[in-house]
Structures are given as C-alpha cells and as structure tokens.
Amino acid sequence: MENNQSLMARVKSINLQTLVMVGAIIVIAIFFSIATEGDYLTTRNVSNLLRQTAITGILAIGMVFVIVSAEIDLSVGSMMGLLGGVAAILDVWYGWPLPLTIIVTLIAGLLLGAWNGWWVAYRKVPSFIVTLAGMLAFRGILIGMTGGTTVAPTSEEMGIIGQSYLPNSLSWLIGAGCMALFVGWSIRGRKQRQAHELDVKPMSHTLGALVVAALGLLILLYVLNDYRGVPTPVLILASLMVVLGFIAKKTSFGRRVYAVGGNLEASRLSGLNVERIKLSVFALNGLMVAVAALILSSRLSAGSPSAGTIAELDAIAACVIGGTSLAGGVGTVFGAVLGALIMTSLDNGMSMMDVPTYWQYIVKGSILLLAVWMDVASKAKR
C-alpha cells in the first residue's frame, strides 16, 4: 500500500513538473513574441526553433541515462564536434556514400561512449575526471584531424539529414499514425491497471488528455506545414524520444539504470551487473551524440573545429530543468526534451532581440543554478 502511495505521489510530482515546464514555455513564447513584435511566433521561426531544439534534445536524451545512473558526461560537446568532423571529412575529402558515412559515424560514437564508460565502470575513475579528459582530448583530436580549418562544403546528400523537410501529406499521415498509437497505448495501459486492481483515473480525465494531445499535435503540424513542412531533425528527435522513453520506463534495462542510480550498493547486492550497465549507458550516450553530430554537420554543411563548444552544458541544463536529479535515480526522457526546448527558446528569443552574448551566458547559467537549487530544496523537504 505504501509503495502504491509513493508511486502515485511520484507520478503526480512528474505531472506537476511537466505542467510547470509547459507553462514556462508558454510564458517565454508570449514574452519574446511581444518583445519581437510577433516575429518570434512566425511559422518560419517556430520551424527554426524546433530544428535548433533537435540537437540539444538528442544530446539531452543520451545525457538523461548518464545522470540517472548517477554519473555525468562533460565530453559530449567535444565528442559531437569530433564526430561531426569525422562525418564531414568522410563526405568531403573522401567522397564516401552517405549510408556508409552514417554507419561509421554512429559506430565511432558508440565506441567513444564505451571508452568513457570503460574507464568509469571498470577502472573506477570518477566520471567527472574521465569525461573532462575526454572533453579536452576529443577537441584536440578534432583540431589535429582538420588542421584547425573548416571542412566544407558537404554534399547535397549529407544535407538531407539536417536540412530537409517532410512532404505535408506524409507528415499528416505520420501524425495520424502516432496519435492512433498513443490512443491505443493509453487504453491498453488503463485496462492493465484495472486488471491489476490499481487506481485508475476517471475516463473523462483520460479522454481530456487525449483531446489535448490531439489538438497539440494538430496545431504543431499545421504550423510546420504552413512553412515548409516537418523538419527531418524534428522527426528524428521525436522518434528517439519515443523509443528511448519506452526503453527507460518499460524495459528491464531502463529499470536497472534507475536502480543503479537510486542505490548503487543495493543494486549490486541484488545481483545486477553494475559495471556492464554503466558501460552500456555511456555507450548509448555516445550513440546519441553521433546522431546529433550528423545533424549538426548537415545543418552547417561543414565540420568545424569549434562545433559543439559548451554543448554539454546545454544538455546537462536541459536534463536538470526537465526534472533529472544530479544525485541519480530520477529523470525522464520527455522532461529532458522539454528542458531542451526551454533552453533553445531562450537562446532563440535572446538572439532575435540581439541580446549580447555575455548576457545570454549569464541568463542560462542563472537558470541552471536555479534548477539545481530547486532540485536540492525539494529533496531536503522529503
């Protein structure tokens, strides 16, 4: 009974946190819309905003698993720059076909992530030190490989990853399919809870949530299609959010990651292979970094020695703002993506207002500090 009550309290806390983040996004949108005389909410800028969010969001998805396991990764910005540089070199200098470039980049990301994880899990070096070393080393390798010059321009085929848009008809079809799956999933979950005699929300609440989700998706697709269509990076982000969110919450691997982050010794005593789990988490994070790197290089049409600078801070901030606890054991993929949207919304709005760069850093740093303080304060009350 106590476990059920604890679970229900946690669910309510997550729902409240989601509502707060959605409210923050709405407030940010209204503020910058007024400040820019409506330019912030034009279909063109909304499309650009979501494309920018895709990179930070994908980095945050991988970072969630690392932080939930009670570790940290400071190397993702430099790793993204390095992997993006590798993709650009293979495309521009060697003329490799796009599928082969993608495969090699993804494998390289997986291996670099596993390298970090091996030092953390099996050599017991603190993740802060391992990934700080990686941040420096990866950036050095990138500068050495490129000779400190930008590798450009990438091929038109490479541009498909980060610059293309879905046809309107296809985006509506995918949207309808996603909504049908969401409805089916909600009904299935409701029936399962009823079968196990667990608390179930009133049917009116479920229907209300489905209606809100459908309207939100409808408005989003209408806005994006009114410009040029759904950007491919946004589709990639949405797909990864669904898949990795399912892995985090509905698979044994996901539950083990939360267990390890929540109580390391108890997990070890219960028979979990903690080292293998942590290695897998860092490898998964490296894979997400590789995906983000491909999108970044495609968007820039180049591989740059400075690409990905301080991107790790944006990813960590997105996770913390999204409710991920730096102490481990708590966090969601969806929350991290919402946190990434908040961070990108601030970046986008301040850039449109020509706010000096130093003020942008001050604002983002203050928000990160506030989010961590709120996390610590909420734990102190428990």
From TrEMBL:
Belongs to the binding-protein-dependent transport system permease family. AraH/RbsC subfamily. Pfam families: BPD_transp_2. GO terms for cellular component: plasma membrane. Part of the binding-protein-dependent transport system for D-xylose. Probably responsible for the translocation of the substrate across the membrane. Keywords: Cell inner membrane, Cell membrane, Membrane, Sugar transport, Transmembrane, Transmembrane helix, Transport. GO terms for molecular function: transmembrane transporter activity. It is found in: Cell inner membrane. This is Xylose transport system permease protein XylH.
